[in-house]
Fold this sequence. Notes:
The protein is an alpha+beta fold and 211 residues long. It has two domains: 2-168, no CATH class; 170-211. It contains four helices and twelve strands. It has helices at residues 2-17, 45-55, 64-77, 170-210, and strands at 24-31, 37-44, 79-83, 87-88, 90-91, 95-97, 101-109, 117-122, 132-138, 145-150, 156-161, 166-168. Strands 1, 2, 5, 6, 7, 9 and 10 form a seven-stranded mixed β-sheet that branches. A five-stranded antiparallel β-sheet has the order 4-3-8-11-12. Helix 2 packs across helix 3.
Amino acid sequence: xxxxxxxxxxxxxxxxxxxxxxxxxxxxxxxxxxxxxxxxxxxxxxxxxxxxxxxxxxxxxxxxxxxxxxxxxxxxxxxxxxxxxxxxxxxxxxxxxxxxxxxxxxxxxxxxxxxxxxxxxxxxxxxxxxxxxxxxxxxxxxxxxxxxxxxxxxxxxxxxxxxxxxxxxxxxxxxxxxxxxxxxxxxxxxxxxxxxxxxxxxxxxxxxxxx
Length: 211
């Protein structure tokens, strides 16, 4: 219990420190007593406002309540969670706590008591440049782990359970490594291009000087 409290304190402290950064968010799935699960998505108010302006440009909100309703709809449209490959969850109506760090909280229904795998996709903030979301899963008796959802993994992770621990499936690891390798290759090619360009420019200057 103490370890769970300490872990939550550490995660929430880190989140609060970055509450004003629109490119940082968290997706927390937490088991309470009697197999009750809570989902909390936290981000800066600026991040939510940017997403709502993008997706609801034709029907802008006029009141805080309208904004809250749009946030709930936006999260539900852009969030997918499945357990044991095929078992999809359902969410309660949800509540939105507005602030510099805005929180969206749902009760989660349909989580199996025997979890073998988890699939999470959260594209709620994908329009925000370089956005990344910390994915935190807290289940009683399991190791406390957090993962990252970002552009490199298409804001998607598949996790499997092994010895009371959530681990990234090999297919996702391969996709992540492939993405990193591709970016590295592009960076190398760009560097090579500029190196060749610079050499040609230097040679051109040397020829002019020799004349």
